[in-house]
Amino acid sequence: MGLGNLMNGMAILLLQDGGSFWMPPQSSTTAAEVDWLFFFIFYLSIFFFAIIVSLTVLFAIRYRRRPGREDPDEMVHHNLALEVTWSIIPLILVIAIFWAGFKAYMNMATPPPNSYEIRVTGQKWQWLFTYPNGWVDGELHAPAGIPVKLVMTSEDVIHSLYVPDFRMKKDVVPGRYTTTWFEAPEVGEHNLFCAEYCGTEHSGMITRVIIHEPADYLTWLENAASFYEEMPPAEAGAEMISRFGCAQCHSVEGKAGTGPPLDNLFGREELLKGDKTVMVDENYIRRSILDPNVELVRGYQGVMPTFQGRIKDQEIDWVIAYLKQISEHYEEPLLMPIEELDETAVQGETVEPATEEQPDVEPDGPPSAESESSAEADQA
Ligand code: CUA
């Protein structure tokens, strides 16, 4: 990256709406206190740095060895008043810093009673947020003006949930729950990062925080599921790919990432680890989502987390519909335009594109390949 790009990126990062040159906007109730404490310590350090450095330079010049100036007969070894002063003043300052820091820390570490609760799962390399009604989303939606408590855990390694605009950062640890909280007074959008290096796609472990008016938030939550139900299945599937963070590792433009690309995949014969092959069909996709490390595509590491218990059957159907749409190995079942169909021939359901059976899948490989694939994976 060139210096120009770097400066550009920094400028964008620093000069967001409401931010200053130094800091992102203060978008939570605790942000002002954190910034105050930061600047207090910062300017205090600058003050003493300036005094010490300038006196050092001044004394070095003023009291340098010169002809005609002899060493004093007697060195000054002790000055009680001076020593008490330079001990008491820093002591008071350090106690003040500790007190202000401790207060701010306790405030940030203790969610107010009756906070609204959202569950957070960190996993390589995405965030999943589980709302009180069971809805799982890749973005953090929350109501404005209400304290929100995050109960967080990790599926694999240590991650760290970081929202600079809220001055909120907390580690997300496997095998235990950590909690943090925030209250965002204003409606708006913020960036959420992973702040703990967690592997190759660490830098892609980004999502958004969306703060709604409380009433809008409840409407969003109610509609979240049905919103996708009203879309064409393939479109909903594309949304699932981003909602569940699949795109972090799986390209849809043919590029090999941490995981194999998803385009032109459906209906193809795939070479697996251990020299087995599998026909990529509905069942293979389903197994790969729920039990991802059993039938690994050759050349890839088994690092994908399972989505068992997080993704619903219908959502898997949508993903499958989307993968069909972006695969040249799959042909849409031929459908005559409705008006050309004889009224008597229309038999309701039979006209709908089948999602279970694919008579038109190109038989690239022997049909027996699929049954072989359910055999146990190569452990080597
Ligand atoms: Cu998760 Cu870095």
List the helices and strands and how they pair.
Blueprint: H1 3-14, H2 31-62, H3 80-109, E1 116-123, E2 126-130, E3 136-137, E4 140-143, E5 148-154, E6 159-163, E7 168-172, E8 178-182, E9 188-194, E10 207-212, H4 214-229, H5 233-243, E11 269-271, E12 277-279, H6 282-290, H7 313-325, H8 368-373
Parallel strand pairs: 1-5, 4-10
Antiparallel strand pairs: 1-2, 2-3, 5-8, 6-7, 6-9, 9-10, 11-12
The chain binds dinuclear copper ion (CUA).
Describe this structure in words.
There is one protein chain. The protein has 380 residues and is an alpha+beta fold. 34% of the residues lie in helices and 16% in strands. The chain contains 8 helices and 12 strands. It has helices spanning 3-14, 31-62, 80-109, 214-229, 233-243, 282-290, 313-325, 368-373; strands at 116-123, 126-130, 136-137, 140-143, 148-154, 159-163, 168-172, 178-182, 188-194, 207-212, 269-271, 277-279. The longest helix has 32 residues, at 31-62. Residues 348-354 and 361-380 have low confidence and may be disordered. Dinuclear copper ion binds next to loops.
